Amino acid sequence: MVTPSLYAFNAGNTPAFALKPIGRSFALADYYIWCSSPIWGDDDKVHLFYSRWKKEKGMSGWIRGSEIAHAVAERPDAPFKDLGVVLRPREGYWDSTTCHNPLIQKVGDTYYLFYMGNSNGKTDTKRIGIATSKSLDGPWERLDSPTLMPGEKGAWDDHCTTNPAFVKGNDGKYWLFYKSWNTAEYQNQSGSVRGNRKYGLAKADHPQGPYLKVSENPVIDFSDSPNNAQLEDAFVWKEAGMYYMIARDMGFYNHEFGLLLSSPDGLRWSEPQVSYLDMKSYVQESDPPAHLKRFGRLERPMLLLDKHKGTPCYLFGATQGGTAETSTTFVFEIESYTL
Questions:
Q1: In 10 A of CB 261, how many CB atoms?
Q2: Alpha-carbon torsion 102, 164, 314, 29, what sign?
Q3: Residue 300 and residue 66: Cα distance in Å, rounded?
Q4: Is 45 helix (H, G, I), strand (E, B) or coil?
Q5: Which of 20, 58, 261, 308 is most solvent-facing, going by the fewest CB within 10 Å?
Q6: CB 337 within 8 Å of CB 17
Q7: Closest by Cα among 176, 163, 201, 175 to 301
Q8: Is 313 helix (H, G, I), strand (E, B) or coil?
Q9: For residue range 216-275, what is the model confidence (pLDDT) as tens digits?
Q10: How far apart are CA 284 and CA 286, in angstroms?
Q11: Each residue's pLDDT tens digit, 291-317
């Protein structure tokens, strides 16, 4: 557990990532788009696995009716073309009401599509699952059961498992980071942010599992911080012998910022620094309509890594706005970064 000090950020500080905005590279007139996970294909194109739901459902429609789809672009800085749905909710299964939080990874000759599903349109049945394919174009084969279950009643992670982040560890095992929180805290607290989101770690000998939690305790826990500070939407990668995590700020500096953490072993994590700023620091857009109450945030940050070096080269995220007044993918080129 990390015990952070009070956090402050001012104009004299420098975010870890220097970003050049590319823009809203992918939008659909009739949908909210979220969770944009990029990967290089064998065709040298950039493939995007993203979540979407119908515009008429509103921003909260992701929890009941999201589906995961596939898009492609010639280059990371080019517009994306939609290729259609790859995972829809399945009646009678654990992912019967939503499919969300896609994370696409390749291990060997197989693609692994991690995602979150639920079965009642609420947060307490959110579970992480996996679909696999030998090709980015499918077909995708899903496991019939979730890959990772919540903890027992009263545990820090008894509410759900969600926001999968995946990396192969230096121990040769496959690591799955996940977000969760405690149900009683969530139900009994008041305010705009209830409960405290923490991250756990589970490991497996095969990328498809079975995954076993490394501890009954979370590996990232900022619940002792002021202002109920926490983070979500983690993406993890390895570089120069260290593990790094980019995530969305929920109370350290600014809810519209991104965070960067580092760890030598995936268990002990640094205090968070700012990875990127709010959207208005990079682009100027018209004032949003009243229903886009999260306008100005870049959420669900995902990195497209250099295909040879494995280092960050583009930042993908989801943000409200666009001509359809919903949400779209937004892409930044990473001009430089400091870890």
A1: 21
A2: positive
A3: 15
A4: coil
A5: 308
A6: yes
A7: 163
A8: strand
A9: 999 999 999 998 999 999 999 999 999 999 999 999 999 999 999 999 999 999 999 999
A10: 7
A11: 999 999 999 999 999 999 999 999 999
3-state SS record for 176-192: EEEEECCHHHHHHCCCC
Structure token pair of residue 130: 């996996």
Question: What distance, in Å, lies between the first and last C-alpha atoms of the chain?
Answer: 21
Q: Which residue has the tokens 């590319």?
A: 22
Using CA atoms, how far apart are residues 298 and 315, in angstroms rounded to an integer? 10
In the block, residue with structure tokens 């905005």: 21
List Cβ<8 Å contacts ≥24 apart for 225-232: 225/4, 225/7, 225/251, 225/252, 226/6, 227/251, 228/191, 228/193, 228/196, 229/4, 229/7, 230/193, 230/196, 230/197, 230/198, 231/197, 231/199, 231/259, 231/272, 232/163, 232/179, 232/197
- Domain 17-337 adopts which CATH fold? Tachylectin-2; Chain A (2.115.10)
| CA 122/CA 205 separation, integer angstroms | 31
262 and 242 Cβ atoms separated by less than 8 Å: yes
Whether residue 68 is predicted with pLDDT greater than 80 in this model: the reply is yes
- What is the token pair recorded at 158? 């008894």
Tokens matching residue 82? 């939609």
∠ CA 210-215-216 to the nearest 5 degrees?
105
